[in-house]
Design brief:
Oligomer: single chain
Largest sheet: 4 strands, mixed
Number of helices: 9
Number of strands: 6
Number of domains: 3
Strand order of the largest sheet: 1-2-4-3
Distance between the termini: 8 Å
Shape: elongated
Order of helices and strands: EEEHEEHHEHHHHHH
Structural class: alpha+beta
Helix content: 55-70%
Strand content: 5-15%
């Protein structure tokens, strides 16, 4: 589900700003953008997210500011700097280049700088960032809850429409059943001109059995039952995305069976409309956790 959350926390002169952007995703995918001094905390950030969310593509951006800071979070790696100077001088002599090695040449190598070890182990900074992440997730979830409420209204409206349509299909099926029986009798009569050679009672039984196979009452009952469970699952406070997806599959299965049983054009048209609506519901469910 799409959403945006932001939090800013200031403690002991340290300010952490966290922004979280969420897009639809079937699974939980977390991308972090952390200051270099917190790069080793990526795993902790992802664990924090997993405690609050189970689906969505999240991008987490963290910014840290420290007031009154007199030292920079990086130091010169003197050993690396000397090694690069030596290496460049050897290259200069080998290539017979007269130009001397300058500072700008050394700045091409990122290895001459390294993260201050004190900064790496700074628990104070992490505690502030951790609190900001928690608050940003609460802000994000608040937005997602509002969006979810609107989505629930839309899904409920669609499911109740499906109930109405399947009720119409069941009524039409019952109305057409006597016509189907007469049609079967007529077809059999055309095939068997000499009716004296067949058992009329057995014929009636076979016609009744065949007509029963065309009856969609059982499928309509299961269809409505799945709809009922769907609405109950949406009302549940626990994440229900996977359960709702399963129920849509079952509803679609009943619609397919109804479509295969009927030879009536009106019912077949209603089945097509049901399947179109189920596809819209399935797309919406990709937004639900």
């Amino acid at each position: 589900m799409t959403g945006y959350g932001r939090a800013e926390v200031t403690q002991r002169g340290i300010t952490a700003i966290v922004e979280i952007r969420s897009v639809n995703s079937r699974y939980l995918e977390v991308t972090t953008r952390l200051p270099r001094s917190l790069s080793q905390r990526e795993r902790e950030v992802k664990e924090l997210v997993r405690t609050a969310m189970s689906r969505g593509g999240l991008t987490i951006t963290v910014t840290v500011e420290e007031k009154g800071e007199t030292s920079v979070p990086m130091v010169v790696n003197k050993s690396a700097a000397r090694s690069f100077v030596k290496l460049l001088n050897e290259l200069r002599k080998s290539a017979k280049i007269k130009e001397q090695v300058k500072l700008e040449h050394l700045l091409k190598f990122s290895e001459v700088f390294e993260v201050n070890k004190e900064e790496e182990s700074d628990e104070e900074v992490w505690k502030v960032v951790e609190e900001a992440i928690r608050r940003a997730m609460e802000d994000l979830n608040s937005m997602r809850v509002k969006e979810g409420a609107e989505l629930a209204k839309d899904l409920e409206r669609r499911v109740r429409w499906l109930d109405e349509v399947v009720g119409t299909i069941e009524r039409l099926s019952k109305e057409r059943m006597p016509l189907e029986r007469d049609r079967l009798n007529e077809r059999i009569g055309l095939l068997l001109q000499d009716k004296s050679i067949i058992d009329q009672n057995r014929l009636e039984l076979e016609v009744a059995l065949l007509a029963d196979k065309l009856d969609v009452t059982e499928e309509c009952v299961r269809f409505r039952s799945h709809n009922k469970f769907f609405l109950e699952a949406m009302a549940d406070k626990e994440p229900a995305g996977r359960k709702l997806n399963f129920l849509v599959q079952e509803i679609n299965r009943e619609a397919n069976t109804i479509g295969s049983k009927t030879s009536d054009a009106e019912i077949a048209h209603l089945v097509v409309k049901i399947k179109e609506e189920l596809e819209k519901i399935r797309e919406q469910l990709q937004n639900i956790e």
